[in-house]
TrEMBL record:
Keywords: Cell outer membrane, Membrane, Receptor, Signal, TonB box, Transmembrane, Transmembrane beta strand, Transport
Species assigned in the record: Pseudomonas carnis
Coiled coil: none
Record-linked Pfam families: Plug, TonB_dep_Rec_b-barrel
Family according to the record: Belongs to the TonB-dependent receptor family.
Keyword Oxidoreductase in record: no
Protein name per its UniProtKB record: TonB-dependent receptor
Compartments in which it is found: Cell outer membrane
Residues covered by the TonB-dependent receptor-like beta-barrel domain: 358-802
Record-linked InterPro entries: Beta-barrel_TonB, Beta-barrel_TonB_sf, Plug_dom, Plug_dom_sf, TonB-dep_rcpt-like, TonB_rcpt_bac
Membrane topology field: Multi-pass membrane protein
CDD domains named in the record: ligand_gated_channel
Signal peptide boundaries: 1-26
Top-level taxon in the UniProt lineage: Bacteria
Length: 836
């Protein structure tokens, strides 16, 4: 409550301060000085783009040395109103917009869709994209009819560097070292960008070339303890099992872009944008677990089965994007077109998906601390001689997602009863194809392969002791020794045909779209009205398994959407405008939800649902923006979304074809979900104050939202269907940012905080709210400083996660662990040389 109240108080105070400062700021506007680089310059460029847009959107711009305010693209976006991120190992990855999960939003690079490299998702992890390749990031929250309608929360549009972003020759190069306090490891980074303009034909500086490269290797880790929600609440709160985990991670990012722009005259322009990004993630996870013979309360002692586990895998994600397009004015007509090709892939070569060492029973074992369980166990649990290799899961997987599109737009300016107007129409065809191939082997009953007890004992695989911040852990496990052992076995004897078959799929989505829209300026009003049509052809092919017997599955569907839209903008005065929009949008379910494979084993079943309906949303937005000189704005927006056919996981056992099943887990469409909220934002550079206060900057934004949805499922206890009201998964009621900055010609400082309140992460069964998993509130505090040693040479320092914020998932109530993870702060020191 304190965090939320403080955030509201600060935002409202900032609004009052903005009004009070307006007169003083206006007096300075006539002699306003514009720096070439710096925080204020980047904020000012972003606000100018935001101000002139026909859509409601928020923007982050790179500064004059082609640097975003954060190294990670996802973390740069999260500074905007209404934006939060899902983090992986402490790094921001997936973006949520206005409380709607990452899979309900889309990501585009230079106007073309980025497909997801992950097998089950539509969401694109933005940390795959090196920030040095990015000139600006926009989150478009209201879609005009000429835009793809495939986002419910918003579209994140990434624009890469252009030679026309700088005058003449520009180049920059950076080197950086980062230190991870958790693992005490130091990691390198190198990046650079260059652009220049050339004269072709009779033109002057009409041809531009821009290039950017980036490489980073980061070694880090985290410490974790989790129950996965394994609590028994029937008699108090008793725990069935828990697991300690230590992660050792190496992430390597490499990317490059080469862009061309050609403007032969004032009537035409053409461009080619290319981007390649490679993200390699190597993870070693050691785990130690206790499974109690009977559920135990904290401090109780009893029998428990002990295990030690290892996961070791290498995963490489690649994104390629190529966009060619142009625009030509033909009298009152403007013709524009674009062709795009994007391909994402994820490749996981053969790896240890899980190796389990069984330690047998340990008497007088227990735990303490329900939020961060710690073991109460004898010294034998830490002796590798007590553990023997029981099973090795070996997997390899490849996923590829390709999207090709072609768009053509034609616009004509005309006079409508004395008012400037434009009629625009066009069409787009896109073809998307996603493949997933998984192969699995299960090495078990190893003693029957002629291997002795000594060969299977953990002492043969021990690799030192694990450095674990949350307490005593014990021996680590060598992945190389496990590979060597199973490498001597005939792997065909251990092939798992079910896992290797039912997870394979091919999904195709062909979308044909067309639209028409009209824009008219009537005095201080601008109106945009139009209609978009999207027709989708869907096909999913896979395989199902029924008690070990396989059968091919195929689903084909066609569906259509008519999506009207109306936008209005009213200019109250030179610096103040009101915006309103009513729009319709549509998002297809995730590929994991649509997966055509299934597994039926006796009276238990698990399957995707390729017959799911797309999610449809009717959206209302209303807001006011006031701009105050340089890098200054204050705004307030309200929004409302009525989402039809939202998707949730459910158990349909006991109903229909699954009437005689004990479990039948799948996905279903809900009827309707509501989401509404308020966004407040304030930004100000105090140029008009006397030195040194004229270098002060303040930025604050907060979003307050609520959601409500009804889900339905079969309750086996009562033998009938039941309904339950929930908040939408991934929706935080409060999201906020606070930034305090100061800069002059040589020094730039920034202290920033990002807050996200708790949210629903995963649903339990329809009648078991106590086992729903929630992610607890998080506040991340970062600091950065840049100092110009010379005009062209700059040194930088960054400290991330200064407060050592953890990641905590709780089961029903904050007292009960689902997952707890610590990362520690990271410190970075860099040097940048820039010529412009």
């Amino acid at each position: 409550m304190y965090k939320r109240t403080g955030l509201v108080s600060f935002t409202l105070t900032a609004l009052a301060l903005a009004i009070a400062c307006e007169r003083l700021n206006a007096a300075e506007a006539a002699t306003e000085h514009v720096d070439v680089v710096g925080q204020a310059a980047a904020i000012d460029s972003a606000l100018k783009e935001q101000r002139s847009s026909d859509s409601i959107k928020s923007v982050v711009h790179a500064d004059g040395v082609a640097q975003l305010p954060d190294e990670n693209v996802a973390e740069a976006v999260q500074r905007l109103p209404g934006i939060s991120v899902e983090r992986d190992q402490g790094e921001g990855r997936f973006v949520s917009v206005r409380g709607l999960g990452p899979d309900l939003n889309s990501v585009t690079i230079n106007g073309t869709l980025v497909p997801s490299p992950e097998s089950e998702r539509r969401a694109v992890a933005l940390d795959v994209l090196p920030s040095e390749l990015v000139q600006s990031l926009s989150v478009i929250k209201t879609l005009t009819p000429d835009m793809d309608a495939n986002s419910l929360g918003g579209t994140v549009d990434v624009k890469s560097l252009s030679a026309f972003d700088h005058k003449g020759l520009f180049y920059t190069g950076s080197t950086e070292a980062s230190y991870d306090k958790n693992t005490h490891q130091t990691s390198p980074k190198f990046s650079g960008a260059a652009s220049n303009r050339f004269s072709l034909g009779d033109g002057i500086d009409n041809f531009g070339v821009a290039a950017a490269l980036s490489w980073q290797k980061r070694d880090f880790g985290s410490d974790n303890v989790e129950t996965g929600g394994a609590w028994d609440f029937s008699n108090g709160a008793r725990l069935n099992e828990f697991e300690q985990r230590d992660y050792d991670i190496s992430r390597e990012r490499a990317g490059g872009g080469l862009n061309f722009d050609y403007k032969p005259d004032d009537l035409s322009s053409y461009y080619l944008r290319t981007l390649y990004s490679r993200y390699k993630d190597t993870e070693t996870r050691n785990a130690a677990s206790l499974e109690f013979a009977d559920p135990q309360a904290p401090g109780e002692l009893g029998d428990a089965e002990g295990k030690r586990k290892l996961k070791n895998r290498e995963e490489t994600q690649q994104i390629q994007s190529y966009v060619v397009g142009g625009e030509r004015m033909l009298g009152l007509w403007t013709l524009s077109g674009q062709a795009g090709y994007s391909r994402s892939s994820e490749d996981s070569p053969g790896h240890i998906a899980g190796a389990t060492f069984d330690g047998g029973d340990f008497a007088d074992s227990g735990f303490y601390d329900t939020a961060k369980p710690r073991p109460l166990v004898g010294s034998g649990f830490y002796d590798p001689a007590n553990f023997s290799l029981d099973k090795v899961d070996w997997e390899k997987q490849h996923t590829q997602d390709t999207e090709k599109n072609l768009r053509l737009d034609l616009a004509r300016d005309y006079d409508l009863s004395g008012y400037a107007s434009q009629f625009k129409f066009g069409g787009k065809v896109s073809r998307r194809h996603k493949d997933n191939d998984l192969e699995a082997w299960v090495y078990k009953d190893l003693d029957e392969q002629g291997l002795s007890d000594e060969q299977l004992n953990l002492t043969q695989f021990q690799k030192g002791n694990v450095d674990y911040r949350l307490g005593r852990f014990g021996p680590g496990i060598s992945a190389g020794n496990i590979r060597q052992l199973i490498g001597g076995l005939n792997r065909d004897d251990f092939y798992d045909p079910t896992e290797s078959t039912v997870n394979d799929f091919t999904i195709r989505e062909d979308i044909n779209a067309g639209y028409l829209m009209n824009t008219v300026d009537i005095d201080d009003w601008r109106f945009i009205a139009g209609m978009r049509y999207e027709g989708t052809e869907f096909e999913a092919k896979g395989t199902g398994a029924t008690d070990g017997q396989f059968s091919a599955t195929e689903t084909k569907r066609r569906y259509h959407h008519w999506l009207p839209g109306l936008h209005a903008r009213y200019q109250i005065d030179k610096n103040t405008q009101v915006r309103a929009a009513w729009t319709k949008s549509v998002v297809r379910p995730t590929f994991g939800q649509l997966a055509p494979g299934f597994v039926i084993d006796d009276d238990e079943a698990t399957f995707g649902n390729p017959d799911l309906k797309p999610l449809e949303s009717s959206n209302l937005d209303l807001g006011i923006e006031h701009f105050m000189g340089r890098a200054g704005t204050v705004s307030a927006f309200v929004f409302y979304k009525d989402v039809q056919n939202f998707v949730y996981n459910t158990d349909v056992a006991g109903t229909g074809a699954w009437a005689n099943f004990a479990e039948a887990h799948t996905f279903a469409n809900g009827d309707s979900a509501k989401l509404y909220g308020l966004e407040l934002a304030y930004s100000q550079k105090f140029d008009w104050l006397p030195a040194p206060w004229n270098g002060l900057m303040i930025g604050a934004n907060s979003t307050f939202s609520r959601s409500s949805a009804d889900i339905e499922g079969f309750d086996s206890a009562s033998g009938r269907n039941r309904k339950r009201n929930i908040s939408l998964p991934n929706q935080s009621d409060t999201v906020g940012n606070l930034m305090l900055g100061w800069e002059d010609d040589t020094l730039s400082l920034r202290l920033s905080a990002n807050y996200k309140s708790a949210y629903l992460y995963e649903l339990a069964s329809i009648n078991d709210k106590a086992h729903d998993l929630h992610v607890d509130a998080q506040t991340f505090v970062d600091f950065s400083a840049r100092y110009s040693l010379t005009k062209n040479l700059q040194v930088s320092f960054e400290a991330q996660n200064l407060t050592d914020e953890s990641y905590f998932v709780y089961t029903g109530h904050r007292s009960y662990n689902g997952q707890y993870e610590e990362y520690g702060p990271t410190y970075k020191l860099g040097l940048t040389f820039t010529h412009f």
